[in-house]
Design goal:
Blueprint (H helix, E strand, L loop, with lengths): L11 H14 L6 H12 L4 E2 H7 L7 H13 L3 E4 L8 E4 L7 E6 L5 E5 L1 H13 L10 E4 L2 H6 L2
Helix pairs in contact: 1-2, 2-4, 3-4
This protein binds zinc ion (ZN) (2 copies).
Amino acid sequence: MRLKEEQEITEVAEALAHFEGFLRRRGLKVTKTRLLIAERALSMPGHFSATELWGALREQGASVATVYRTLELLAEAGLVRRCILAGTSGAIYEPYLGRRRHHGHLVCRNCGRVIEFRSQDLEEGLRRTAEAHGFCLEEAVIQGIGLCRQCRESLG
Ligand SMILES: [Zn+2]
Ligand SMILES: [Zn+2]
């Protein structure tokens, strides 16, 4: 699941199958709870925290620790991305499938709003820069921090 070996997973079902394989290769149990958490995480429309995901799964009785652990595994499997966003406390996650893999973030340092944008040019520039340094780029994380339109207006 690297930019290099572009074998893109775009469907949740496909991602779940990939996750199962990943768990087996790691010698980890493929439990119903893990798959349920994975399915819910991969179906989230945008960024979410582990607590939000846990809230969405509360009726299924998943513990918050299991939710965290499963998110970490999904990140290691390359199916979910852990984003460090300015102005947010704790990790924010997002599904990392298909077109969603290729976007950057503009983060408002005042209200925490996240604006997503396509970043092909920036990604390409980063790739070229990496190459020039003999660096093997595995993942591009493109993020800008500043003030959103609403905050600029209200802060004058
Ligand atoms: Zn703002
Ligand atoms: Zn995003």
